[in-house]
Amino acid sequence: TLDNGVESVWDMSLHSQMVEASVKVQDYNYRDAPANLLGEVNSQQKNSTTYGTDYRYDEHYKGLNSNGSNTNDINNHNRNHDDENSGDNSREISSNFGNASHTDNGNAGKVGDSVDSVESGEWYARIRHEQAISRQILIRGKSNQANLAPGQHIRIKGSTITGIDEGIMILTVQ
């Protein structure tokens, strides 16, 4: 082969776009009609390259912070998981970089500060916002590594794209 058996990435291009700064969720629970189920999450508060709010109604959750508790203490958690799975792929790959920074919303250590319960309103808002942030900066490229998969974190040496020395997260493989 032309690459002499060396794992390679080529035809890399960067695309960036403006994404929403926060996600606001609202729902109605007939079992607890007066409950306030309006919540808003911004998992990247220090990011000045986001704008606007994505409003979502009817995510079908029972409580704002848990599946039964309806407090208005917003907890924003963005986790940085660095899997050291390396490799490249001869299929086209889309990846994201530069958005995996931990942010503190100022609520750390306050009463009621806990991780959002699964399927709570704030959990849905956080998941939707993290999905939007993952679309903000995309890198496309081709590779000769056949076992790349979404979710892998890879490092590319010698890239002309600046800022990817920490690696990139693979979002899709085609």
Compile the SSE list and pairings.
Blueprint (H helix, E strand, L loop, with lengths): L8 E8 L5 E5 L12 E3 L11 E5 L34 E5 L24 H14 L2 E7 L9 E2 L13 E6 L1
Parallel strand pairs: 2-4
Antiparallel strand pairs: 1-6, 2-3, 5-6, 5-8, 7-8
Question: What features would you describe in this structure?
Answer:
With 174 residues, the chain is mainly beta. It has one domain (9-173). 8% of the residues lie in helices and 24% in strands. The chain has 1 helix and 8 strands. It has one helix at residues 121-134, and strands at 9-16, 22-26, 39-41, 53-57, 92-96, 137-143, 153-154, 168-173. The strands form 2 sheets. Strands 1-6-5-8-7 form a 5-stranded antiparallel beta sheet, with no helix packed on it. It has a 3-stranded mixed beta sheet with strand order 3-2-4, with helices on one face. Residues 69-91 and 98-114 have low confidence and may be disordered.
Number of domains: 1
Biggest sheet statistics: 5 strands, antiparallel
N-C termini distance: 22 Å
User: What do the pLDDT scores average to?
Assistant: 75
- Topology order in helix (H) and strand (E) letters: EEEEEHEEE
Low-confidence stretches: 69-91, 98-114
Tally the helices: what do you get?
1
Strand content bin:
15-25%
- Quantity of strands, as a count: 8
Give the overall shape: elongated
What is the CA-based Rg, rounded?
19 Å
Strands of the largest sheet, in order across it?
Answer: 1-6-5-8-7
Which structural category fits the helices and strands?
mainly beta
Give descriptors for this structure.
single chain; 174 residues; mainly beta; 5-stranded antiparallel beta sheet; 3-stranded mixed beta sheet; 1 helix
